[in-house]
Amino acid sequence: MVNSRFGRLFLQLSAAERRSFSKFIASPFFNQQSLLAQLWESLATSYDKQGTMSIKEDLFRQLYPAKPYNDQQMRLLISRLYQKLLEYLAHEEAVSSEAQMKLYEAQALRKKQLDKHFQRSLGQARASVETEGFRNAEYWQFNFQLQLEGSRSVSKTQYGGQEALQKLSDTLDLSYFTAKLRHVCLLLTHQKVYQSQFDIGMLEEILSYVNSKELLQEPAIACYYYYYYTLIEPENTEHFQHFKTSLFKHSQQFPAEEIRDLFLLAINYCVKKGNTGNQAFIHEMLELYKAGLATDVFLDQGELSHFTFHNIAAAGIKTKDYKWVATFIEEYKNRLARQHRESSYSFNQARLAYAQGQYQTALPLLQKANYRDLLLNLAAKTLLLKIYYELDEFDLLNAHLDAMKNFIRRKAVIGYHRTNYLNIIRFARKLTNSNLYDRERRKSLKAQIQAEEVLTEKEWLLEQL
User: pTM to 2 decimals?
Assistant: First the structure.
């Protein structure tokens, strides 16, 4: 049952959601099939006690003690419970926005022709969306719905006339422009990664209109407008600076998920510029990370992704901001998911120690952690390789390179990562076994390293030469 649609959904529920659904399924307003409530109670109780889902036969026995197991009947019950769970999730989404609920309330009152009641609820919906403080595409879409609903009201005195119609039209434009510019940035980002082609539509007309009407004062339009130009003219760094300025200025006017995406777009640009050798953008990237951490941009339900944790530490190490990195590692280790906490913490401590030349400190940190994540394991092995080389422990290094190569062959390391790590091993061997006092041999090896396209440790290898 774990691999069924119901099972996969059940395992994604938090403890709070399971408790909430228990109340939902027990309510006769939402559910009039008592067997479904019993089935859920058996499932939830068993999971809370044992940490695993009960098998269908055990559940059936609890529901029908005197009957032999009937798989078809059990499947039907689970299917109905699955539908109720979907209803619950949809209900939670609907009631999660106070502004949206007040708009629904206003619509119902308008249909009842209770104008004063309607006006009050509509005003509350408007006040609620303003209290949220967001100014993204969804804000303008919701405002258009509010104004449209107002125009349909029983009393036309407040909404009639040319001014109201013009306002409705302007809001619709803002709703479309903000959504369109955001989507264009998504299309172009996808196009660059996957070499896709899209018909962008009326983009030029929108850009021209935005400029002629001075709409860059709107946060969402400004952010996506400047990011669009950052994408199509990456060499002109002024576009990025305008984008970053808008991002910092308006960060509180976007919901958490959207502002996180905007920060990541800015960081990705810095990564690409940094990879071309422009070290100033590594500092820009760290500035973005620091700003995001200060406002909890990168936290998702209180947790920091271990990928983001590694990237932030790497950026600080590259800029030699060692004291800040040490503080960051300590402060955010408990924000990591439990399964990644020990390995991510020890690896980044080791990486920091290595960067400061503290090789004897880094070694035990790399050796004590259990690196279950394949790519983190390979990153740790690569760091260990570099430490052995720096310490002139060439016997240990050669044994380590053999073990690392066998590890890659045994594990499902494919594509880019397989090529990259095998190249690291190959060049590390050449570095160890070649007579580097021979100028021609050193020159030849340098040319080979520089010519290799897939090689993340190129900078370190060249530094050793």
Answer: 0.81
